[in-house]
User: Which sequence fits this backbone?
């Protein structure tokens, strides 16, 4: 077991590029520092961690009915990391990532 000061220093280093948050559904999450209210947490089948995306306006893809997003980074969302969201009625969409 690590000493408290060592653990705290390690945790501070680990969290320096992340922040704690609560999703609108009430899940505790660790998100990239640049994430903000309104961003989307996306679960992609086969990926280890959910992604945080921010909707962007404009662009050729949006002109043909699509939605453009900017990748903010990976996240950890407590309660959905082991496939729990695949057992509930969730929205499934196809997206284009370039």
Assistant:
């Amino acid at each position: 077991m690590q000493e408290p000061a060592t653990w705290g220093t390690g945790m501070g280093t680990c969290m320096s590029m992340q922040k704690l948050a609560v999703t609108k559904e009430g899940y505790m999450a660790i998100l990239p520092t640049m994430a903000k209210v309104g961003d989307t947490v996306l679960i992609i089948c086969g990926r280890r961690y959910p992604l945080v995306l921010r909707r962007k306006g404009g662009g050729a893809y949006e002109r043909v009915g699509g939605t453009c997003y900017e990748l903010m980074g990976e996240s950890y969302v407590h309660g959905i990391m082991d496939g729990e969201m695949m057992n509930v009625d969730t929205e499934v969409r196809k997206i284009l990532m370039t």
